[in-house]
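Whiteboard transcription, Tuesday session. T.W. wrote the structure tokens on the left side:
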């Protein structure tokens, strides 16, 4: 089953606007001859705990119990010093991924296509036998885990992409992508005042709207978690620790939104979210690798992340 890639590069003509690259390895999963086989133990997902798109895959994997279906390899949040941008397995013994036996993410991309000209991005799913990237479709990957990988879900796994809500989820995900997930990047990587201010305004307008929506229900679609909650959350959890400063989205912090902040804590306190959150990786990556002005590579001490464990009070509707 092929999911259309809803994301389209934005070719708006705002001077200095940040444009995200198109994905390259987008073969869908399925049983067709041209599809990637849905086979447990065949793939390894390369992620950075700093990256929102990659972390989403880990949260979905934990919620659905897909830990035995595919393994994960973690790259260092601080990128290697090379002539091109890459990610390295320096957290592993001898700097080599123990399963794929490579030092750099670029090795997996080049094994798949020696002529590859795109950026070496996470998440990237590699076939373990060939050590080649087979899918880096960061926007659609979680839909596959939620649907065609269903036979491998743990019993009692939540339905994160229920049939009756699919169209609504897809529409909201599109908004969340453009105005929140990628919205903060558009502010942070703008190369002109106008582009920055436009992105900043869109981010906060949408966060205000989401704060209002979450005053009405525990999750974005009522009382059950969906794919959309995970998409929104990966940006919220990085907001005060990274985006507020590094990307200059500083009208206010996440902790200043009454409903969004309680909602964010509610999700953090679910093990699949909290256990896949590494604030040290988030802070190191954004402050050192995404802040060109941070000449000396200083990683801020704050903010105090113990507040994420404080009661959220969202169990009962009466508290909203
Ligand atoms: N694959 C997507 C999204 C994934 C993505 O941007 N991942 C980031 C980490 S959050 C990355 O790996 N960036 C590496 C680079 O841009 O060189 C893209 O190319 O825009």
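and on the right, the sequence the group agreed on:
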């Amino acid at each position: 089953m092929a999911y259309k890639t809803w994301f389209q590069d934005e070719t708006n003509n705002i001077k200095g606007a940040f444009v995200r690259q198109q994905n390259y390895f987008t073969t869908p999963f399925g049983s067709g001859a041209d599809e990637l086989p849905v086979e447990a133990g065949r793939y390894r997902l390369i992620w950075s705990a700093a990256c929102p798109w990659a972390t989403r895959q880990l949260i979905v994997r934990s919620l659905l119990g897909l830990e035995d279906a595919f393994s994960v390899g973690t790259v260092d949040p601080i990128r290697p010093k090379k002539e091109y941008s890459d990610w390295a397995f320096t957290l592993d013994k001898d700097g080599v991924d123990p399963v794929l036996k490579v030092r750099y993410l670029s090795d997996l991309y080049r094994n798949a296509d020696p002529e590859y000209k795109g950026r070496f991005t996470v998440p990237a799913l590699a076939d373990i036998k060939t050590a080649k990237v087979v899918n880096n479709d960061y926007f659609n990957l979680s839909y596959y885990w939620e649907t065609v990988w269903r036979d491998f879900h743990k019993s009692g796994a939540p339905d994160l992409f229920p049939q009756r809500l699919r169209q609504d989820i897809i529409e909201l995900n599109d908004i969340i992508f453009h105005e929140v997930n990628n919205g903060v990047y558009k502010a942070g990587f703008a190369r002109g005042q106008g582009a920055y201010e436009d992105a900043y305004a869109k981010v906060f307008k949408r966060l205000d709207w989401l704060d209002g929506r979450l005053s009405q229900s525990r999750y974005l679609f009522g009382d059950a978690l969906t794919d959309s909650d995970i998409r929104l959350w990966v940006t919220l959890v990085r907001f005060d620790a990274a985006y507020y400063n590094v990307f200059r989205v500083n009208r206010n912090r996440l902790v200043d939104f009454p409903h969004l902040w309680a909602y964010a804590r509610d999700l953090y306190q679910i093990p699949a979210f909290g256990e896949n959150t590494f604030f040290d990786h988030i802070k190191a990556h954004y402050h050192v690798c995404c802040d060109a002005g941070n000449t000396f590579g200083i990683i801020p001490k704050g903010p105090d992340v113990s507040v994420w464990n404080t009661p959220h009070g969202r169990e009962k509707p009466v508290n909203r």
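Someone added at the bottom: The first helix runs from residue 52 to 64.
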